[in-house]
Amino acid sequence: MIRAALFSLSVAASAFLAGVAAADTGDVQAGEKVFQKCSGCHQIGKGAEHRIGPHLNGLFGRPAASYDDFRYSKSFQRAGAGGLEWHADTLDVFLENPRSMASATRMSFRGIKDADDRANLIAYLRTFSDNPADIPEADPTATSLSHDLDPTILALVGDPEYGEYLSGECTTCHQSSGSDDGIPSITLWPEEDFVLAMHAYKNKQRNHPVMQMMAGRLGDEEIAALAAYFARLED
Amino acid sequence: MTLNRRTFLGTSAAAAASISAPALLADGHGKPRVVVIGGGSGGATAARYIAKDSKGAIDVTLVEPSRTYFTCYFSNLYLGGFKEMDDLGHTYGNLAAAYGINVVHDWAVDVDRDSKTVSLAGGATLPYDKLILSPGIDFVDGAVKGWSLAYQNAMPHAYKAGSQTELLKSQIMNLPEGGVFAMVAPPNPYRCPPGPYERISMIAYQLKQNNPTAKIIVADPKPKFSKMGLFQEGWANHYEGMVDWIGADFGGGNVSVDPANMTVTIDGEETSVDACNVIPAMKAGKIADMAGVTDGNWAPVNAADMSSKADADVHVLGDSSSQGDMPKSGFSANSQAKVCANAVRGALTGSKVFPAKFSNTCWSLISANDGVKVGATYEATPEKIAKVDGFISQTGEDSATRKATYEESEGWYSGIVSDMFG
């Protein structure tokens, strides 16, 4: 019953979504051109220093107004104290209309209305912050779009072959033999329990950062495929 | 072109309709042949998944010089006294017996991409339809002034697990009372971003019990490193005053060593040391270079299937590859291997090819039952493997959480080695 409800929800939701896997945040070279609007006040890159505005190296993941050696407006200091951090999403809002986030910022810039220009600029700025290959906890460089599929492809639901492929992501930790050496067994569960557990992680109702992350990008039919595969897995 | 699910379904449906016989690419010689070079996290996983999922339709040969493979992951825990060397060793018998993989213990010494053959040191030549290179890392010559592989006994790297790890441990255990241990940390990118710092933690743990007045100096060419806040918190809590980390901002990158006299010079200041772990700059395993698929130190690959940008019939996995945002780790190599295996099988037998998904988690142990982790998920974009989501342990977590994280890492270890070796 519950699974049926979940799937009808996903049909409704996925009707609006394309089945694309991932999107880059933008074009770095195009963003470098957009940055010319900023470079009168902000430096970036090797040897960059604070000028009229603070330098923008290492921007991603940094709290707003966090340099001791730069004088920020009160407005920005309040935003920083209130927990504002710079990530692709907050920068996008800020760059569209700076005063929407810091009403009395001294940055006299009207904002960038074009979403592609902003995306390209953000991609360019991102190249001057930590690289996730070196610092795995560094900010993402792309956004994950939904993995929910078009309803016409829902025939994939419960496809054990797809489940077997997807299970490769699980069996790095959960042993396919069902052995439990510190990470619980996930084999031979009733499909409904499996689906419920995965959705609870996906919706962050169950606490476990690895599982929330793994389940978070699985579409409903992918969870069903995994449930179908593991339910039948005999070692 | 971004591979999206709709395209893949369309093409695989078309493929399924038009192909009835398997062995699409057998090239008139019977079963299609896959040669995998390197039996670590990438190579063993790829070999096992291709053999397992093709159910005998593909001939898989795994070339690996070592009869026993020692995992780099958990080798720091051996230094700390939490694991025995035997716990880290794995053999290839099951891959041969249970999966029918032709395991060849030999060195691959050349790859001829025109004739699609691999030459082995023992004289044999292996033909392939698809070649998978997963040779791990080698060191950049001259990366640390005064050090070369000729000095690896005086100043071990211990960054390929095995006898080097045992040597380093004996040097730690024999450090004179109140002695000085130095580490020269590597520049980015390198295998296992938190590895050097977990190693510092484990050495400090060992010394705190047996030699509590000993000191540890780290010369680091980087201004920051993975899990830096977590490690520094842990060092202050568990090993106060013991660890002196000298980052790039304080001259940590300006370093030379003298293995004959056991000195380390950091930013012009010479220090006598009793043991020194030199972890040099790294590059792709040599065979990747010989195969002509490297550009600079690493081998660029396409994110969708880990195929070399230089040759669609050669795939490069793990540390040797240059793919984008994934850290060089055993977990990453294992994840990439499964995407690669699915694509290789699809190309050779017409089986369904599903879209790439990648993930990684790195656990590190700071002290007994004080485990931390960092993880992320990644997807293939036209340019690279891109990070899309992630998490990291928090500073100030309670001891129950840290203990649970350590126990989880032990579970992961059992999981990944059974995923590799069956």
What is the string of helix and strand elements of chain A? HEHHHHEHHHH
CATH class of the largest domain in chain A: Mainly Alpha
Q: What structural class do helix, strand and pairing data of chain A support?
A: mainly alpha
Rg of chain A, rounded, reads 22 Å
Radius of gyration of chain B: 22 Å
CATH homologous superfamily descriptor of the largest domain in chain B: FAD/NAD(P)-binding domain
Structural class of chain B: alpha/beta
What do these coordinates show?
The complex is a heterodimer of chains A (235) and B (422). By secondary structure, chain A is an all-alpha fold. Chain A has 2 domains: 104 residues, Orthogonal Bundle (Cytochrome Bc1 Complex, Chain D, domain 2), CATH 1.10.760; 120 residues, Cytochrome c-like domain (Cytochrome Bc1 Complex, Chain D, domain 2, Orthogonal Bundle), CATH 1.10.760.10. Chain A is built from 9 helices and 2 strands, in the order H-E-H-H-H-H-E-H-H-H-H. Chain A has a two-stranded antiparallel ribbon with strand order 1-2. In chain A, helix 2 packs across helix 5, helix 6 crosses helix 9 and helix 7 packs across helix 8. The longest helix of chain A is centred in the N-terminal third of the chain and has 13 residues. Chain A is elongated and about 65 Å long. By secondary structure, chain B is α/β, with parallel strands linked by helices. Chain B has 2 domains: 192 residues, FAD/NAD(P)-binding domain, CATH 3.50.50.60; 138 residues, FAD/NAD(P)-binding domain. Helices cover 31% and strands 26% of the residues of chain B. In chain B, strands 5-2-1-9-20 form a 5-stranded parallel sheet. Chain B has a 4-stranded parallel sheet with strand order 13-12-11-17, with helices on one face. Chain B has a 3-stranded antiparallel sheet with strand order 6-7-8, with no helix packed on it. In chain B, a hairpin with a 2-residue loop joins strand 15 and strand 16. In chain B, helix 2 runs parallel beside helix 10 and helix 7 packs parallel to helix 8. The N terminus of chain B is likely disordered. Classes of the chains: A mainly alpha (235), B alpha/beta (422). Chains A and B meet through strand 1, strand 2, helix 6 and helix 8 of A and helix 1, helix 10, strand 22, strand 23 and strand 24 of B.
